[in-house]
Amino acid sequence: MKFAWLDFSSKTSEVPGGMAYHSFLLEPITCHAWNKDRSQIALCPNNHDVHIYKKDGAKWTKVQELKEHNGQVTGIDWAPDSNRIVTCGTDRNAYVWTLKGAQWKPTLVILRINRAARCVKWSPKENKFAVGSGSRLISICYFEQENDWWVCKHIKKPIRSTVLSLDWHPNNVLLAAGSCDFKCRIFSAYIKEVEEKPGPTSWGSKMPFGEMLFESSSTTGWVHSVSFSGSGNRVAWTAHDSMIAVADGEKTATISSFVSDSLPLLCVTFITENSLVAAGHDCYPALFVYDAGKGSIAFGGKLDVPKQSAQRGVSARERFQNMDKKATSEREEATLDTLHKNSISQVSILEGGKSKCTKFCTTGMDGGMAIWEIKVRWNYSIDTVSHFTFYCTFQGKRSLINHALDSNRL
Amino acid sequence: MAKNTLSSRFRRVDIDEYDENKFVDDQDEAAEHLGPDSAEVDNLIRNGDMMTAFHIALRNPPINTKNPAVKERAQAIVLKVLTSFRAGDIEQAVRSLDRNGVDLLMKYIYRGFEKPSDNSSAILLQWHEKAFAVGGLGSIVRVLTSRKTV
């Protein structure tokens, strides 16, 4: 019986060959985006600028500062093929940056919004991008050749609050949006000027611009993050009431949700068609596995460095003091034992795409960026995982961080 | 000074009511639960059948009504059951609940914290500790974010 297994390892700087956790700043990294070959990262260091860092062996060096926004940059996306960066900010503007020689030059895009922009995403074909904003609408922007500028169309109904997150379906037309009115929705962002009419999908076949094809029933929390699966047939979202849910387009959009006992998750992405990685205020990425047959989501485990158990003896005096101060005689750790020391706000896929991710990256409010590797071996004969375990390599030692989950399709 | 400034009637107008962008929750068509049956619960407490009283008290939570009297009544009944429990039985009672039950219990516990009386806070803290062990931080987050309060 061939076994396939998932291996999550986060190499720290102690392990040769890998820079797994890099502390860029002492302030939060508001948002980040990678270029195509993952040699450069653009991030916003919690101010009005975008800094571009280039990988230099094991170090990161800053190559350019993009200064154009008048407000905090809330979203960055880097189109891999056309090599353009789009940024959006609280100054209600978006800029498309193109590389001219060695310099990035901005082009203003008029979004026609009267509140801050919150998130931006290039479409898969990179001929348009979507911006979610506090104006309770989504701006779909595309380039008009005749006038040589970017124009935008709005998707308004029935969004009733800030759009916090966006994700495109692989067909370049459907767009998932999570917003503060507690709903995740799928809209059509079909622009006839730049593309052909799309074929039918599992979410529907009629897709005029602005049509809503799916709306989740209310959770009671703001929807922080949405993600389509690699095929586009499933959409997952996380909400502020500590809930993660998946809607399956192939099963007439039935929703399965997982009510978690941890703090809310702020970002989520599919890493295979059935599994998700999500992270948030608990400062560690967690794995969730969706079972289409049962229509349920299971918690797959915490993916992080193992707890360093330093069991020193507790002196009698310490016990007494703890009893007096904290009403308990155990010594509690005052520091977090996770890799990230503050909430993780964004997760991005580095290698393998959403169907067979082998590497992903997290950035957070501690100003650090961590790269996580997954080693997957597929059981090609039946295309199933029958048994998997998670490992973490930390300081050169491999340790088991999670036990196997049986009979889960991966 | 103009005469208009003498009138302050305009100050009583709630301008947010007239904002066309004001967010209104979806009106759920769910049945209006009106809280547990007080007589039944009292009977069970008198007979000493605490577990059943507990489960009945947590039935029909008045989450869909806006009537404060109904909510007060339900809260009083649940509080009575919670305070009549022996400390040792609390854990078992919490274990017998499912996920939604633990979330609902947490809502009642926090509602109880709002208006402390006599010894209620001490008992509620014991319940809180046990419910937290099962529901975790997520259940507390759901108390805070829930639009439909108990």
UniProtKB/TrEMBL annotation, chain A:
It comes from the Eukaryota. GO terms for cellular component: Arp2/3 protein complex; nucleus. It holds the Pfam family WD40. The keyword Cytoplasm applies. InterPro entries: ARPC1, WD40/YVTN_repeat-like_dom_sf, WD40_repeat_dom_sf, WD40_rpt. GO terms for biological process: Arp2/3 complex-mediated actin nucleation. It is found in: Cytoplasm, Cytoskeleton; Nucleus. Keywords: Actin-binding, Cytoplasm, Cytoskeleton, Nucleus, Repeat, WD repeat. WD repeats lie at residues 66-100. GO terms for molecular function: actin filament binding. PROSITE patterns: WD_REPEATS_2, WD_REPEATS_REGION. SMART domains: WD40. Component of the Arp2/3 complex, a multiprotein complex that mediates actin polymerization upon stimulation by nucleation-promoting factor (NPF). The Arp2/3 complex mediates the formation of branched actin networks in the cytoplasm, providing the force for cell motility. In addition to its role in the cytoplasmic cytoskeleton, the Arp2/3 complex also promotes actin polymerization in the nucleus, thereby regulating gene transcription and repair of damaged DNA. Belongs to the WD repeat ARPC1 family. This is Actin-related protein 2/3 complex subunit. It comes from Paramormyrops kingsleyae. The lineage of its organism: Eukaryota, Metazoa, Chordata, Craniata, Vertebrata.
